[in-house]
Amino acid sequence: MNFILAGLNIDRVPVEVLECVTVPTHSLKEHLERLATHAGGGVILSTCNRTEIYSVAEDVEVGVRHLKEYIDAVPEHDGVTGIGDYVYTMTGDAVAEHLFGVTAGLQSIALGESQILGQVTRALQAAGEAGTVDPVLSRLFHAALRTSRRIRKETDLGRNRISVSSLGVQELQSTLGDLKGLRVLLVGAGEMGKLTARALRRYGADDIVVSSRSMNHGRILADELGSPQVPFEDIAKTLVETDVLITCTAAINSVISADTISTAIAGRLDRLLSVLDLGMPRDVEPATAGLVGVNLVSLTELQAKSAESWELRAEAAAEAQGLIEDGVRRFKERLTGIDHEPVIRTLGARMEQMRREEVEQTLSRLDDLTDEQAISVEKMTRSLVRRILADPISFLRSEEESATEAVQKVFALLDEEDSDEAE
What we know:
- It contains 16 helices and 9 strands.
- A 5-stranded parallel β-sheet has the order 6-5-7-8-9. It has a 4-stranded antiparallel β-sheet with strand order 2-3-1-4, sandwiched between helices.
- It folds into 3 domains: 2-159, Glutamyl-tRNA reductase, N-terminal domain (Beta Polymerase, domain 2, 2-Layer Sandwich), CATH 3.30.460; 164-307, Rossmann fold; 335-389 and 397-422, no CATH class.
- By secondary structure, the chain is an alpha/beta fold.
């Protein structure tokens, strides 16, 4: 059984391609069921800057082809072609190392962001509920999550509280200066909306208006902020008095058109409108970027800004790499131990049986042996068996593919294994 991966990432694919294969949370179950039919199952990790599918396969080449075909068949393409040209693939240990790095936040737009932990956890839970995750793949994800928590505890990444939303707010501040006194319209009241609202408060924004397609969700966030809420259908009117528009919805299509922005600009008397689009797929029509009086910042621009800090990323990656390597090694050791456990148990039982038979025969010939001496013989023979088994067990838990067969032949275990399976 081998790990396989196919995916797309915003750092190597146009945003119009990535948003076509983004899997919204509300349709994840449907996609997982389709994945099970087409490619045998797996875990779908879809965030604001990536969509990746993790799976296992007996035949790696066939498995990878099925994952690529699945991605190319996702119905949200909307006429976009050539998606397969952007798909990257990985197999074996490379998949494990990649997942560990992703879960640690080393490949996020905001370096070391903690939100990825929840995203990976939810992706695994969804696959578990849909029955599409292989037990070995599940163990890989749990190992990645454990190592990520360790990295955050033992390295500087744990002190990095930057999220994609706070990175976006920082970009706004660098352009506009002090956010105090500027009216901000926040569209979206989900997890990203809450993170964005908190970032706005940290950076001094004191005039925030909330809007959401769900009036209930919008009301909860508005109450938390002590801010007013406007109905979703009133966004166009609200934009006339808005200085900053931030969108972060989970919609699968644009929720604010270029025409809506254009109409609002016409009534603003030459006031600049800054737009931060944190949606994936994008919430604001791309044509908005060409409007006079509008400064549009999307995840693509944030990714480019993030890439500029390559020295910081290199340092963080170097600090975490040792823990990632250790985590992968520990996972492989545990996985190998699980795979070889039946052989180890059979070998231990065979040696224990031989030890008991020899001890019984020896003790039966020694009439004047005391109880204390008999106990010493027991201890000595048990210790001897443990020492004899140490090397074979270590060999079984190595990465040597022929280990199981070699040990079974040397210790004549094949017949016993067959009989155990028959039982």
